Automatic annotation (TrEMBL):
Belongs to the 'phage' integrase family. This is Site-specific integrase. The keyword Repeat does not apply. One of its GO terms (molecular function) is DNA binding. Residues 232-446 form the Tyr recombinase domain. Residues 308-328 are annotated as: Disordered. Residues 314-328 have a biased composition (Basic and acidic residues).
Length: 454
């Protein structure tokens, strides 16, 4: 096989020679012209994106087919399991750790349903573990499986359906039914089902892109996923007094002052509406903390927590750009004097981490979610009544962010400004927090009264 790194890509163009809409992707490999016509613009954009990512990763391209080796490997597979493995090999280098975890979770649910009826099938939990911890990792990252996992993997490899079988809607429906259930047989959450279906859709689109399938069979299936709830439950939102009581209660919790060390972290979620992963990554250089008046945070890094098997570094916290933004985007967030004072006091008492981070564990590491969640649950017991503790009120630290955004909206801050500070689009902001905006019902009622009285 002759390969080359000399690759040039062109923009997608409309196929003018066809009456039905289609789109052409053109590129060159070592001077040889290559092109592919696809039925939809979305498919064409997916192919161009995959080719572009392969060039960024320094992947060699086959001069005969014009495809990067990862795509060529996927095209040469015969079973669904092998195709999925090749898909993961291709996607892995340019996916965030959380995305890798999410894709593995979805496919580990769907693949056991896409098998032939063969004797010796392992139980569902064993199959799921074999897929998650061994099979659905790139070859270079797969650990050596123990004997029971090895037997489960061998069974999967022998029982996996052929890729061509995915063209039948009855086959794909089996996968849809599988992602709609948990391991215990109960219905999965609506958001979980939606996320897993999106992964299945992407894998099938890739099969269409490589011409292994003529069309995505999901488009032919009348299957309704459970309705998802995007709006924030107003019952979780604390008022300013409750928030202050919680922050005070946090300082009473934990050995060696662990609660005091974490209080400023929670304060960033409440006063600045930071996501936990954004607050954990906050550095001194990101903070403007004047002695008086309002300050400002410049948010440009996030450290989401994920299992180490999904990261490139082996660390549980992978440094990423901001959610739904470009890698180099920065989000300025003005902060009130109360938070300025809290952060100044925190730095004076606890200092900074080796890389300038404000928040660190007792040993100087990145703060783990288990640590701050444990402190939070104990603080709720101190700050709330037993009835409130049993309720959804501020059940998670993340709910402080919801409380902050709700407070800003109810204070009359314009939605575009709130969206900018919180890192949302205006559309998402108003949809997610629609039920947390007080006063609209009363205004509507008065207007209806006025109309009826006229």
């Amino acid at each position: 096989m002759n390969t080359s790194y000399d690759v040039k890509l062109w923009a997608i163009s409309r196929n003018e020679s066809s009456k039905t809409p289609s789109y052409v992707v053109r590129w060159k490999v070592s001077g040889r012209q290559k092109s592919k016509t696809l039925r939809t613009k979305a498919l064409a954009e997916n192919l161009l994106s995959d080719l572009r990512q392969a060039t960024k990763n320094g992947e060699p391209f086959d001069m005969e087919t014009g495809l990067p080796l990862s795509m060529l490997q996927a095209k040469s597979t015969r079973t669904v399991l092998d195709f999925v493995r090749a898909y993961i090999e291709m996607k892995w280098p340019h996916m965030a750790a959380k995305s890798r975890d999410s894709i593995s979770d979805a496919l580990a649910t769907a693949l056991p349903a896409l098998v032939k009826d063969r004797p010796g099938q392992p139980d569902a939990e064993l199959l799921r573990t074999a897929l998650r911890k061994y099979t659905l990792l790139p070859k270079a990252k797969r650990p050596v499986p123990p004997p029971d996992m090895e037997r489960a993997i061998r069974w999967l490899e022998g029982a996996s359906l052929d890729v061509v079988d995915l063209g039948e809607t009855k086959t794909v429906r089996l996968a849809l039914d599988a992602i709609a259930l948990r391991l215990d047989g109960k219905a999965a959450g609506a958001n979980t089902v939606r996320r897993k279906r999106a992964v299945l859709h992407a894998v099938l689109e890739y099969a269409v892109e490589l011409e292994e399938l003529s069309a995505n069979p999901l488009h032919r299936i009348k299957w309704k996923p459970p309705k998802t709830t995007e709006t924030v439950d107003p019952r979780i939102v604390v008022n300013p007094r409750q928030a202050q009581e919680l922050l005070t209660a946090v300082t009473y919790e934990g050995r060696r002052g662990r609660g005091r060390r974490l209080m400023a972290l929670f304060a960033c979620m409440y006063y600045a509406a930071l996501r936990p992963a954004e607050a954990i990554a906050l550095r001194k250089e990101d903070c403007d903390l004047p002695e008086t008046g309002w300050g400002r945070l410049l948010i440009d890094v996030s450290r989401p927590e994920v299992n180490t098997q999904w990261t490139d570094t082996g660390d549980a916290h992978e440094e990423r750009g901001l959610k739904h933004r470009g890698r180099d985007d920065v989000r300025p967030v003005p902060i009130p004097p109360a938070l300025v004072k809290i952060l100044r006091n925190h730095i004076a008492e606890f200092g900074l981490g080796p890389d300038g981070r404000l928040f660190q564990s007792e040993r100087g590491g990145v703060v783990a979610s288990t640590a701050y969640t444990e402190v939070w649950q104990e603080a709720r017991k101190l700050a709330f009544t037993p009835a409130q503790v049993a309720s959804p009120l501020a059940k998670r630290p993340y709910d402080l962010r919801h409380a902050a955004v709700s407070l800003w909206l109810n204070a009359g801050v314009p939605a575009p400004e709130v969206a900018e500070r919180a890192g949302h689009s205006v559309d998402v902001l108003l949809r997610v927090y629609a039920k947390c905006i007080d006063g609209h019902q009363e205004i509507a009622n008065r207007r209806i009264d006025d109309a009826l009285a006229a």
